[in-house]
Amino acid sequence: MKILLPAAAAVLAVGLAACTSQSSDTADATTVAVTSSASACDVSPTQAPAGTIVFSVSNTGDEPTELYLLASDDSIVGEVENVGPGVSRDLVVDAAAGDYTALCKPGMVGDGIPTEFTVTDS
Amino acid sequence: MIGNYLIGLREGLESALIVSILVAYLVRTQRRYLLNRVWIGVGLAVGLSIAVGTVLTFGTSTLTFQAQETIGGTLSLVAVGLVTWMIFWMANNARHLKGELHAKLDKAADADFWAVGLVAFLAVAREGLETALFIWAAARSTGQGSAPLFGALLGIATAVALGWLVYKGALRLNLATFFKWTGAALIIVAAGVLAYGIHDLQEAGVLPGLDVLAFDVSETIPPSAWYAVLLKSTINFTPAMTVLSAVGWLVYVSVVMTLFVRKVRTPSPPPVKAADREQAGVA
Hints:
heterodimer; A: 122 residues; mainly beta; 5-stranded mixed beta sheet; 4-stranded mixed beta sheet; 1 helix; B: 283 residues; mainly alpha; two-stranded antiparallel sheet; 3 strands; 72% helix
């Protein structure tokens, strides 16, 4: 039982830390529309100023899709999964200037459909 | 609609399994009076998930991807610790029950029962936020009317119904079998949660090795197929698994399963008589 209180406290601490230090204000964010279908991934616009970027992903296909934002070394900057058919979900990232790849994965399988995405100095 | 239905099912089934085993355990050991702690845990988790999900959906602030993955991954690891504790606590209690079944319960053990509420809370809260965000997204989507929301909610309802069936089935097992199988099932579920938590932390960049895959069978087992969803939500099998996740899964199962088998074998389980089953409240 004694281990439980610290465990609960740790969970709360993580949650609070995440909310206060890592949340982003979307009020002055750039919104990028992403339309993911079974065979295409339209990203518009394909560049945005550095800072908070909201990728609004709409799934027009028949299977769930997901969107990844990859850095130039292929590490994941952000991911939103479980975008069901007919559903729109947002991926929010804080991105520095650089070259990125926006990657739709219809059916959550395979290599995905890449689109080059540029973050400029703000 | 099928796609959204399966997402709802996947998000809900694992929580439903853990909670139904907990509830079955309390009922089988004549501790119905402690059920409210489980429901408080579940209620708090659902409430908290909906509240945070609503704030993030309609407010001006939102969690970054890294924050969400770090929270999810950390909660998973804490949940694994608590479920592991629960497995051995249940096994210990099973030994206490030997012989004088239910006649003289170890009341001291009841002090730990708040932990039961915490296990229930974590089991639900772990994926609760992602589920709440998904439900809100489905509710606000205009693409296919209310079909996405309906599908998602139906999926969660199916998960709850399956959990209820597991509960009913667990009540029919004789007590010795019940303890063995629920323990073993929880170990597999917990190992899956561990693998999943490791993967979350890899995605958040907290742990390395995201692109080092142990195997990738997503060509033969498409992740959106119904059987892949069932595998994912029961044993957390993912068609593509990183080496770190796979090693975590294997190490956890081999260590904990060995300890568990030793524990339940030490006292030879008493033959369960019909009278015991009645006493245990078999419906």
